[in-house]
Amino acid sequence: MKPDIDTYREIIDTLTRNKSRSFLTGFGVFWGVFMLIALIGGGNGLKEMLQNNFAGFATNSAMVWAQPTTKAYKGLSKGRQWTMVYKDVERLKQHIPEIDKACPLLFSRGDNAVFEDRSASCSVRGTTPDYSSIAEPQMLYGRYLNEMDMTHNRKVCVIGRRIYNDLFPGGGDPCGKAIRVNNIYYNVVGVDCSMRNINIGGRAERAIVLPITVVQKAYNRGNSVDIIAVTARPGVTMSSLTDRMREVVARAHSVDPSDEQGVAIFNTEVMFMMLDNLFNGVNFLIWLVGIGTLLAGAIGVSNIMMVTVRERTTEIGIRRAIGATPSNILSQILAESIVLTAVAGMSGILFAVTILQMLELGTTTDGITAARFQVDFHTAISAAALLTILGGMAGLAPAWRAMSIKPVDAMRDE
Predict the structure, then answer these.
(1) What gap in Å lies between CA 373 and CA 197, rounded to an integer?
(2) 178-192, 250-264, 266-280: which has the minimum mean pLDDT?
(3) pTM of structure
(4) Coil, helix or strand for 280?
(5) How far apart are CA 167 and CA 399, in angstroms?
C-alpha cells in the first residue's frame, strides 16, 4: 500500500500538534528541576547565613553566669543575689582538668566612644587574651589583646567594625590613635571586623574590648566576674562537664548544686547540634520535594510520548514497511524522550542558577556577600545525570508500544 499525499499531511499535522504538547510537558520537567536547584541553593544560602552568625565561635564552649537562686540551701533562702569572682576561673581549671580554656568576662553597656569630634555608642567588654580561642576575632587592623596588656594594665583596646566606621569614616589604620571612653583614653591596638550574631554582652561590631584588669579598676568592679566562658579539650563533650561545672561554682558560693537557674550554663554544643539536625531535616525535605516534582515531570513526559506514539501509528507503520527495524523505532522514541527531558531540565538549571545569583547579589552589602545562594558543580552534574535517567525511563513504555506496532495494522488503522 503506497501512502498518498493526505497521509503525509496527517503526519506533519501530528508533529505540529506534538510541539505544543511537548512544550507543556517540558515545562513540567523545567519546573521540577528549577524547584530542586532553587531549593538546594536557597537551603545552602540560608545555612551559610546562619553559620556566619556563629562564625568563629567555639562549638565546644559554654557560658556560666550567676542568677538569683531558686532553691534554699544551708539556711539561706531562695531568691538570694550572688556574684561570681575571679577565683572561680581557677577553681574550674583545678577541679575539672577536661577544661581547656576558662575566660572571665566583665561588661558595661550604654557607653560612648569619642575620637576628635566624632562619637559612637558602644558596649565595653573586659576579658583576657584566651577569649580569642572561644570567639575568634577577624582582625582588619592590628592585633588582639595579649598577656603583656594584662600584666602591665595597659590602657589599650580592640574596637568593633561599627565603632571603626563611625570614629574613622575616612578609613585607614587606626592603631596607635587614642579614643576616649567615659573620660578615659585608650590606645587602639586592633580592629575586629567580626559580624557574628552570637555575642556575649552585646554585638561584636559595637564592642570595645579591654583587658579585664583595666575594666576592674576603671569601672570599680573589684574581683567580680559577670560571665566565665569555658571550652573543653579536644574529644571531650561539653555536655559531660556542665553538671560538674555547676557544682564547683555553686559550692564555692553556698548555692544548691542542683539549682540550674541559680547557676546558669549556656552550652553552645547543644545549639550547634540543633542547627545541624535542623538542616539535615531541611535537606531531606528539599530532595524529597525536588525529586517528587521531577518524577511528576517524567510521568508527564511518558504520557505525552504515549500520545505521540498513538498519533504517529501511521508514520511508524510506514517506516516499518520501508525497512525500519524495531531497534530503530526504539532508539527514536527513547532519543526524543531523553532530549525533551534534558533540554527542559538544563533550561531549568540555568534559570534557577540565574535567580540564585540575583538573590546572592541582593544580599551583598558593602561588597560583602552574606551567603552563597548557589549549588556546587557536583550537584548540577548529578541533577543532569538524574534527568537523563528519568528521560530514558519515561520513554521505555512508549518505545515498547511503538515496537509492537505492525505495518499491516498501521495501514489498516489508516
Answers:
(1) 20
(2) 266-280
(3) 0.66
(4) helix
(5) 73
